[in-house]
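Appendix B. Chain record.
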Amino acid sequence: CSAGNELRKPFNQSKATPKSVSGGKGFKCPWKGCRKSFAVSWRLSQHTANHTKPYPCSRKGCGKSFSSPYHLNRHESAVHVQEKRFKCRRSGCAKTFASSHGLKRHSFTHRP
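Structure tokens predicted for this chain:
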């Protein structure tokens, strides 16, 4: 079918291109080897950060980078600051965690 071909653009590694106008997931990831595609451009932008990891850790010698400020902050709290703000509220348990996810994972150990 030739419908929509006039809107199809050649593959360009510098930006996402719509695959077709017939619906579906029109924004394809331009990274070599990645086959993901998205219905809306902002999801592609969000996904591309997984490849580029534009948020580097500023700690000397660390060298890690992350796809979002959330993941960077979680890393810094857990690895570098080791501030454990999340405390288990179970009677007799003194465990603390750097993230709410860690506390939630721990809470399963108290279940019968």
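Further analysis of this model is presented in Appendix C.
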